[in-house]
Amino acid sequence: MVDLSVNIGDLNLKNPVMTASGTFGYGVEYQDFIDINSLGGIIVKGTTGSPREGNPYPRMAETPQGMLNAVGLQNKGVDAFINEIWPKIRTFDTNIIVNVSGSTIEEYVETAEKLALVPDIVGIELNISCPNVKEGGMAFGTSCSSARQVTRAVRNVFPRHLMVKLSPNVTDIVEIAKEVEDAGADSISLVNTFLGMAIDAETRRPLLSTITGGLSGPCIKPIALRMVWQVADAVKVPVVGMGGISSASDAIEFLLAGASAIQVGTANFINPSISQEIVNGIADYLVRHNFNSVTELIGALELD
Ligand SMILES: Cc1cc2nc3c(=O)[nH]c(=O)nc-3n(C[C@H](O)[C@H](O)[C@H](O)COP(=O)(O)O)c2cc1C
């Protein structure tokens, strides 16, 4: 038997595989396909202070080895999350982390304050990186001072695990990672989607109603991996890696680059049981390579 458990700060995960926000609903939608309790954690859909309808359709487009989305944080708002959704998912035997977004610092704080009042919510993932909302979102994650301000403000009101999710749409991701670490993040997750666009040459029109959207899937993996490696080398808090992970070997690459855990996103749309297959594949790898614990892989990239 190999030990798959990892710690992200004070959070204990039975294995390093979590599902990424916006790609796995609230977990219940996937119950027919996989045993939710077999995962290390679920990051639920982006939650905001007030309900949001999201952007107009079309808001998804396929690209080679990936997809563009401009969903725009469609959700029922934090009150509906706490009153209607949380009671249905709180009994899952896994770490359920609530992804929090907002347009203003006040909205982030108000949402985090309400979630802090629900004692069995173990942590939040602060999305300061969404490229698909007009105001806010990515705006917070692309400047050092606003990344610091929003992290600090939420840190002051949320006493449990605070994971901060970074945008890759920056010149120097390490700079931003250090700011949020200083401001009190317990862990850092990366990456969110890359700003991209697609055009239909026949109609000469953009494929997304918002013209630009967020690129995800295998096509972003090499850039995401590079960013995870740079950030893991520069901060002391645990790093959670994602971006195009579609197999156990992809996941292991992120662990070797320094991630303590990983998230699976777009791959859930292609194969709804992929995250469980990745857990099994990591266990097989450990046996094949004579490791006792998955923690031996974290940051174990061989450089000479
Ligand atoms: C349809 C869709 C919706 C998403 N919604 C959110 C969201 O609400 N909050 C968030 O932080 N990230 C969101 N993301 C970003 C993913 O969580 C993830 O960071 C990104 O897709 C990269 O991972 P992947 O290549 O494995 O998909 C969304 C991604 C997709 C494709």
From TrEMBL:
Extract one GO cellular component term from the record. cytoplasm
InterPro entries to which the protein is assigned, alphabetical? Aldolase_TIM, DHO_dehydrogenase, DHOD_1B, Dihydroorotate_DH_1, Dihydroorotate_DH_1_2, Dihydroorotate_DH_cat, Dihydroorotate_DH_CS, Dihydroorotate_DH_I
Q: Which GO terms describe its biological process?
A: 'de novo' pyrimidine nucleobase biosynthetic process; 'de novo' UMP biosynthetic process
Question: CDD domains given for it?
Answer: DHOD_1B_like
Q: Active site annotated at which positions?
A: 130
Instruction: Please give the pathway this protein is involved in.
Output: Pyrimidine metabolism; UMP biosynthesis via de novo pathway
Pfam (any one): DHO_dh
Cellular localization per UniProt: Cytoplasm
Q: Which amino acids does the record list as binding substrate?
A: 45, 69-73, 127, 192-193
Enzyme class, broadest EC rank = oxidoreductase
- How many cofactor units bind, and how? Binds 1 FMN per subunit.
Domain of life from the UniProt record: Bacteria
GO MF: dihydroorotate dehydrogenase activity
Task: Enumerate the cofactors the protein uses.
Answer: FMN
According to the entry, every stretch annotated as the Dihydroorotate dehydrogenase catalytic domain falls at 4-286
What EC designation does it have? 1.3.-.-
Q: Which reaction is catalysed here? A: (S)-dihydroorotate + A = orotate + AH2
Function, as annotated = Catalyzes the conversion of dihydroorotate to orotate.
Query: Mind telling me what this protein is named?
Result: Dihydroorotate dehydrogenase
